[in-house]
Design goal:
299 residues; alpha/beta; Spore Coat Polysaccharide Biosynthesis Protein SpsA, Chain A; 11-stranded mixed β-sheet
Length: 299
């Protein structure tokens, strides 16, 4: 059974200042998602599930359906603030959806096979899809998950702080903890993450999650259970989010899963801020010139 690719594309883009999921970075108007799809198809993924919002569904479908027809099966699911377990109490003034774990939950009705989950606005590189597809096709253990790992030094922005899942691994290369740090930045004397008034240094080669996960279908059981617990503790808050690293870390501690960190030699880059866009465009131009991608992906 071919694995499925779940693309989390419902984000608000508040720091970016617009709908960065569809922003054009390639020479023929391609978005980062186009390159993700191209890499996933040639790596052997059999279906893509877009997690989006209803308010841009028409524009989104018009953009991608003609390109993907006949190349890969496509499903759409919708993340919204009100998709929560019955009986859960939340702050009525909250406006923002509940984060990446909540977004992944939206795919439950259309995914019954091993899956990779990625962000729409991150460029992971072709090798990342190849190594993840190989893992999903060969790993028969339902407790074994995976994550593509990148060095934190290669994932920063010059224009502000970034959020990353900071990882610790054991001698066998499996995660022992992954903690979402929402304010990471390079200073003159090193890389730090910030919590309130404190800052903690990170080594250049600290592995971080860029939200490229290899999951088994049983993840939906863990997601639903974990989200109920999350809302009991944080449902009254206006901005707290249920991140995938929270789900992974909780289940590592419980012993229900183990997560292999897969290193890959592909470049990572992304658009957190508007100012990141020229750098991304230049990197894609260089990859096209080196022969990694055709100039027109879908022609």
């Amino acid at each position: 059974m071919k694995p499925t690719l779940v693309i989390l594309a419902a984000g608000m883009g508040s720091r970016y200042g617009g709908l960065k999921q569809l922003d054009e970075v390639g020479p023929n108007g391609e978005a980062i998602i186009d390159y993700s799809l191209y890499d996933a198809i040639r790596a052997g993924f059999g279906k893509v599930v877009f997690v989006i919002r209803t308010d841009f569904a028409t524009e989104f479908k018009a953009r991608f359906e003609p390109k993907l027809k006949g190349r890969i099966a496509v499903e759409y699911v919708y993340q919204s603030l009100d998709k929560i377990p019955s009986g859960s109490l939340v702050n009525p003034q909250r406006e923002k959806p509940w984060g990446t774990s909540h977004a992944t939950m939206m795919a439950e009705e259309v995914v019954n096979e091993p899956m990779a989950v990625i962000n729409a606005d991150d460029f992971y590189g072709s090798n990342a899809y190849q190594v993840m597809a190989e893992f999903l096709l060969t790993s028969a253990d339902q407790k074994e998950y995976a994550m593509v790992g990148y060095n934190v030094a290669n994932t920063l922005s010059e224009f502000g702080t970034v959020s990353r899942g900071v990882c610790n691994t054991d001698a066998a290369g499996f995660l022992t903890t992954v903690v979402e740090r929402t304010k990471i930045k390079r200073e003159e004397d090193g890389i730090y993450y910030y919590e309130e008034d404190n800052r903690t240094r990170l080594e250049e080669n600290t592995p971080v999650s860029m939200n490229f996960w290899g999951l088994k279908p049983n993840v939906f059981n863990y997601l639903n259970e974990g989200f109920k617990d999350f809302l009991e503790q944080h449902g009254n808050e206006l901005k707290s989010e249920y991140f995938i690293p929270l789900l992974i870390n909780d289940n590592i501690v419980k012993g229900t899963i183990r997560t292999k960190v897969i290193q890959c030699d592909s470049p990572w880059f992304g658009v957190t801020y508007k100012e990141d866009k020229p750098f991304v465009q230049q990197r894609i131009k260089e990859l096209i010139e080196s022969g990694s991608y055709p100039e027109n992906l879908w022609n």
